[in-house]
Amino acid sequence: MIRPLDRVPSIKVKLGLAVVLSLSVTLVGAVVGIKSGLRPRYTLPLGLLLSLLIVQLLARGMTSPLREMADAATAMSAGDYGRRVTATSRDEVGELAVAFNRMADDLAAVDAQRRRLVADVSHELRTPLTALQGLLENLADGVSTPDPETLESAVAQTRRLARLVTQLLDLSRLEAGQLPLHREPLQLSEFVDVVLREAESSAAQSDVTLSTSVPARLGADADPERLHQVLVNLLDNAIRHAPPGGRVAVTAEPTAQGIRLSVTDDGPGIPAAERERVFERFARTDAARASSNGGSGLGLSITRWLVELHGGSVHVADTAQGCTVVVDLPRSAP
Ligand SMILES: Nc1ncnc2c1ncn2[C@@H]1O[C@H](COP(=O)(O)OP(=O)(O)OP(=O)(O)O)[C@@H](O)[C@H]1O
Ligand SMILES: [Mg+2]
Questions:
Q1: Which residue owns the Cα nearest ligand 1 atom 8?
Q2: Where residue 233 falls among pLDDT bands split at 50, 70, 90?
Q3: What is the mean pLDDT of the segment spanning 92-111?
Q4: What is the C-alpha separation between 182 and 180, in angstroms, rounded?
Q5: How many CB atoms sit inside 10 A of residue 98's CB?
Q6: pLDDT level of residue 124 (50, 70, 90 thresholds)
Q7: Are 236 and 251 in contact (CB under 8 A)?
Q8: Where is average pLDDT lowest: 3-12, 226-235, 297-306, 318-327?
Q9: How far apart are CA 160 and CA 296, in angstroms?
Q10: Measured from the CB, is residue 294 less than 6 Å from ligand 1?
Q11: What's the CA gap between 22 and 15, in Å, rounded?
Q12: % of the chain exceeding 70 in pLDDT
């Protein structure tokens, strides 16, 4: 379809052109009509008709994107994010149409992400729930006896469910910016010792030795509860992935910008291609997905949120063996 004024970059100029052109054509028509002896009774309506036709032709494409946008917006409110507006003109309506399409892209992406999240969450919740259900049904039917082992297994699944729900709540609070930081000056060596002592029993269960190297009097300005959560997540991963008889080390050192905390284990490590992806929600390496004692893949994404909340950054170091996760924290609040 021809849209003669598509290239004109302003609606005002377009309207001006339409008025000038239709007036000129009408005038010329009237003059020609009068000169050729037609009465004004005929020339007037003819001129008006001509000017209407001209305006129709020139205004083509000026308002159709607006109508399309209204239709697309109605479709969006019904959940259809696939509609786009044809934006050919260069004026304000064209700009609006381009912005509208961009907004539709963003909304479609957010919607897809939301669906994926709901699917992931349901899947993660269903796994322990199904296990628990099977276990309890067997007990109720008398197929299995309520011996300590069966009950411990039920408790483990319940614990997994509770942990998952807590993690999801944390994530949603973090993403909504509802977790205020309560920073205070911390003595890192003491702080790390406390966290390590808490992790001692799970390390002993996995036959893993814990060690720390933190300079005395190295301090940090951080929220103790949140930094505790960061260390617990990293230690939990390291202990889980270290081999029996393996070692996990926590080190802290001052850097130019602030302090650097590292948690190292001598497990299989994370393949280079996965080192960034593991920080995404529900992201697990293939090895972790295949193992039965794995988590749900939320720990590192929570860790990244918490560290970034402190104005710091976290990454998996480029090591040939084992796994080292590095947390950089600025000296004071950003
Ligand atoms: N120290 C490590 N060694 C090897 N792989 C690791 C290590 N830490 C993390 N990973 C990989 O990164 C993935 C994501 O870790 P993350 O802590 O986010 O989740 P998770 O430990 O599987 O579950 P969650 O922490 O939610 O219980 C893990 O599933 C694992 O594949
Ligand atoms: Mg984890």
A1: 237
A2: very high
A3: 92
A4: 7
A5: 14
A6: confident
A7: no
A8: 3-12
A9: 9
A10: yes
A11: 11
A12: 98
Assess whether the C-beta atom of 316 lies below 6 angstroms from ligand 1: no
Which residue in the block uniquely carries the two structure tokens 């006896």?
145
Domains of the chain and any CATH numbers: 11-105 (no CATH), 118-175 (1.10.287.130), 184-330 (3.30.565.10)
Residues in Cβ contact with 140 at an 8 Å cutoff, skipping those fewer than 6 apart: none
Is the Cβ atom of 164 under 6 angstroms away from ligand 1? Answer: no
Q: Does any ligand 1 atom lie closer than 6 A to the CB of residue 300?
A: yes
The ligand minimizing its distance to the Cα of 325 is 1
CA angle in degrees (0–180, nearest 5) for 242-324-327: 130
Task: Give the ligand 1 atom nearest the CA of 288.
Answer: 31
Average pLDDT over residues 169-195: 91
Q: What is the pLDDT of residue 59?
A: 79
Strand arrangement of the beta sheet that strand 209-213 belongs to:
209-213, 247-254, 258-265, 323-330, 313-316
At 42-67, the pLDDT tens digits run 888 888 888 888 888 887 777 888 88
Q: Residue for token digits 């697990």?
A: 284
Give the separation between CA 15 and CA 156, rounded to whole angstroms: 73
Can you tell me the distance from the alpha carbon of 245 to that of 213, in angstroms, rounded to the nearest whole number?
A: 20
CA of 237 to the centre of ligand 2 (A): 5
Question: Which ligand neighbours the alpha carbon of 295 most closely?
Answer: 1
Does residue 5 have a pLDDT over 90?
no
